[in-house]
Prior knowledge:
- By secondary structure, this protein is an alpha/beta fold.
- It has helices spanning 27-39, 53-61, 83-93, 109-127, 138-141, and strands spanning 12-13, 18-22, 45-49, 73-75, 80-82, 151-152.
- The protein is built from 5 helices and 6 strands; from the N terminus they run ββαβαββαααβ.
- The strands form 2 sheets. A 4-stranded mixed β-sheet has the order 3-2-4-5, with helices on both faces. The protein has a two-stranded parallel sheet with strand order 1-6.
- The protein is globular.
Amino acid sequence: MNQTPGKKIPVISLKQHALIVFDEDCVLCTGSVQFLMKYDQKRYFYFTGQHSALAQWLFTQADLTLATGKTLVLFDSSHYWTQSDAVLKIMSGLGRYWRFFKILGWFPQRWRDSVYDLISRHRYQWFGKKQHCLVPNPEQQSRFLSEIFQIRDFAFQK
C-alpha cells in the first residue's frame, strides 16, 4: 500500500472495536454506513468493503463463504455475525435507545433472516446501485480500513 508521507494509516484493535464488512455497491448499505458513522458516538465500528483485501482475508480466516454482496458481516476479535444477527448486534452496539432493537431478537432467527434475505435480494431494485464509490470526508476516512495490517488482536478460532 502506498502511503502518503505524513499521512497516518489507522490500525485498530478488534478487542476494542468491531469491523463491519458491507456491500459498497449498494445504496442501502452505504447509507447504513453513513447512519452508523453519525450515531456511533464512541467510534466503536470501523468499515471495509466486501471486495477489499482485508474482507477477503477475514472471510478466509473465519472459513466463511458468502455469495458476493449477499450479507453484511460484523467481526470482533473472536466472533462474527451475519444477516439479522449482525444487524441486531450493530444496533445494540450503538447504545442508548438503539438497544431496543434487541427486542427483535425474540423472534426466531429463521424469521428474521427471511426478512433480511428478502431485503437483500431486492436491495438494488428497491434502493438502487451506486454508480460511484463512497468518498468519505477526511474525518470519516479514518474509519475505513482496507489492508490486513490495519487490524490487530484478531484471534478467530476456526
